[in-house]
Amino acid sequence: MFASYLIGLREGLEATLVVSILVAFLVKSDRRDKLPLVWTGVAAAVALSVGFGALLSFTAAHLAFEQQELFEAVASIAATVFVTWMIFWMRGAARRISADLRAKLGEALEVGSVAVAVMAFLAVVREGLETSLLFFASAQGAAATATPLIGITLGLLTSIVIGWGLYASAIRVNLTKFFTWTGILLILVAGGILKYGVHDLQEAGILPGLNTLAFDISAVLDPSAWYSALLSGMFNITAAPSVLETIAWTAYVLPVMFLFLRPAAPAKVAAPAS
């Protein structure tokens, strides 16, 4: 539930920030007549994202075992790529996202009404499609329960509450710190998703070594214990992973975490003209 909640919170807050910036710009510009166009674009983006998630689940449910494992592996690897790109993009864009969106919306208003709806749609649909893919990939290792769905729903609802509070100026959130801490947690989640993708490839017979274990700490990390279920559900940390799973997790998490936490290089100041 926590991994799904984190995905819903992080992706939902990004989408909510986008919508709140667009709405605030129109309200302050005395262009309230364009608000229905923004909500139309947002609704279309949400509908497409839900449909994409349903398509992923439907496709996976109607495949043979080997094909299903391969499909889930591809989805897990794609989700890892998307979440990595999203984490690094938001680290650099958190400070300038408001100005960029206001500039784009201003250009859309000059083009026409349809451009406003399209701009709102494109601004939200990326987050929605990422959320669907990440949720599908992270939920594959969970039991056949509604827990992941509850988690992502709570995360989305929390993001809406925070977004509304930011819009109404009722609360203040340091977005740079927020995206840094959630980025760290999402790197661990993405490492678990990649590890699960490697496991699927092994079960599909694409990669060898399914039964070649890197270690077995079942005596210490009891698979039936609540804390084992928590670690497995959050980060796919298991007591007896294969060698390839361990290599994949380590090869992803360590360098990505290092690059993410490395201080950004200071901007170069142009020398004054002589």
TrEMBL record:
It is a multi-pass membrane protein. GO terms for cellular component: high-affinity iron permease complex. The chain crosses the membrane at residues 6-27, 39-64, 70-88, 108-125, 145-166, 178-198, 239-261. The lineage of its organism: Bacteria, Bacillati, Actinomycetota, Actinomycetes, Streptosporangiales. It is found in: Membrane. Its main location: membrane. The keyword Transmembrane helix applies. This is Iron transporter. The keyword Transmembrane helix applies. Belongs to the oxidase-dependent Fe transporter (OFeT) (TC 9.A.10.1) family. InterPro entries: FTR1/Fip1/EfeU. NCBIfam families: EfeU (NF041756). One of its GO terms (molecular function) is ferrous iron transmembrane transporter activity. Pfam families: FTR1 (PF03239). Keywords: Membrane, Transmembrane, Transmembrane helix.
